[in-house]
Amino acid sequence: MSNSNLSLFIAAFSRLGEEAQIEAGNLLWQQGDTGDHVCLLLDGSVDVTHRTPEGQDIPIRTMGAGAVVGEIAVLDGRSRSATIRARTPCRVIRVLARDFQDLLRRFPDVVDQILSVEAGRIRDLTERLKAAGGPEPVEAGTRLCTSAFFRWRLHTEIRRARAMGDALSILLFEVGGPATGPEEDTRPFERLAPLAERVRGVLSRGDLLGYLGEGRLGVLAYGAGTADGADLLERARREVRSRGLPATTGGDPTPVQAKVGLATFPIDAQDEDGLLAAAEKKLRGDG
What we know:
The protein has eight helices and twelve strands. The protein is α+β, with helices and mostly antiparallel strands. The chain has two domains: 122 residues, Sandwich (Jelly Rolls); 137 residues, Reverse transcriptase/Diguanylate cyclase domain (Alpha-Beta Plaits). It has a four-stranded antiparallel sheet. α4 runs antiparallel to α5 and α6 crosses α7. The radius of gyration is 23 Å and the shape is elongated. The relative contact order is 0.11. About 3% of the residues have low confidence.
């Protein structure tokens, strides 16, 4: 967006809103609040924090004059994803959600800037969650992300997809085929890690693979709608069927039957729990 367009946007934003003073230490809003307005920070600075499901407050960043805050909750219609507290005395302009949405229709370039900033915030949150003991990203001894990290990423990517009007798909794999002995149930990665390598060969860069427990492998494919998801599913099936998996005791690859369930946002479900349940239902043949 050009500087001239940015100046026009800020001027229009200022005309639509009302100015307010926020004392240092006071909240602009709390995580979980309704996203009914957006703020442009004219003076001062604010701290952004995120509370994990375990109740730990993770500092994300400090934002200063010129920052727009609260825009994602307005775009995706969800509750606030973070708490904003005035670090210093602040002067802000508040614009109601519906007025902000009308403004974006006049300045579509701003949406690209907002989503670029949000992507940076997601990266910051990921790193800070790791540093603060958030969900471990990778299962020890594997290249598969943990179930907790997979679900957390699914939650954040659904928010991003809702804001951008994108789709995303998840696939659940359950390995069948010949058993290798009673130890297989206690060492699931010996079966799933080779499957992941086969599936990884047909994925796009950035797609996420995770161990979801109970002998399940999950794939998160951002931007994949129903047709793309179905194509990905078939290519993964062909790859596994044609090449098989390495036999646990060595030798030629073992023929494998992998059950697969596919679910797509926003068609099959609107949140992470619903999407996983829809994929599970299709894996079981009930969908």
